[in-house]
Structure formats: C-alpha cells, structure tokens
UniProtKB/TrEMBL annotation:
Keywords: Ribonucleoprotein, Ribosomal protein
UniProt keyword Zinc present: no
InterPro entries: Bacterial_rp_bL28, Ribosomal_bL28, Ribosomal_bL28/bL31-like_sf, Ribosomal_bL28_sf
UniProt record similarity statement: Belongs to the bacterial ribosomal protein bL28 family.
SUPFAM superfamilies: L28p-like (SSF143800)
Matching Gene3D superfamilies: Ribosomal protein L28/L24
A Gene Ontology term for the protein's cellular component: ribonucleoprotein complex
Name assigned to this protein: 50S ribosomal protein L28
Biased composition (Polar residues): 12-30
Record lineage: Bacteria, Bacillati, Bacillota, Bacilli, Candidatus Onthousia
GO molecular function, one term: structural constituent of ribosome
Region (Disordered): 1-30
Organism: Candidatus Onthousia excrementipullorum
Entry annotated with the keyword Ribonucleoprotein: yes
Amino acid sequence: MAKKVTSKKPLTGNSRSHALNATKRQQKPNLQVIRLEDGTKIRMSAREIRSLRKQDKQAA
C-alpha cells in the first residue's frame, strides 16, 4: 500500500440539471502512485508531481 503524502480531499457540491434538480456530487483529486528511487511507493496529486519535476529541471 502506498503512503498518502498529499492533504488534498474531494470537493463536494451539487450537480444541477436543466430543471435545477440538485444531487450531491464529488470531484476527486487526481492522485497518482509513484515510486521513489529507494523503492517506496507514495500517492501524490498530479499537480504536485509536475511541480517537483519542474523544480528538478530548474536546479539542474
């Protein structure tokens, strides 16, 4: 099982039809499982992974 690193949670709200009927819905974060160099697996959001890769390119 991968460790969850991010603190992101699903957004909740209403889905509205044309007749304005409201039903509950969730928007879940885009969590991905990545493997680190030492072999451990972690779950991070796609946005966080992208930010880390950008920082690595700038540092090099």
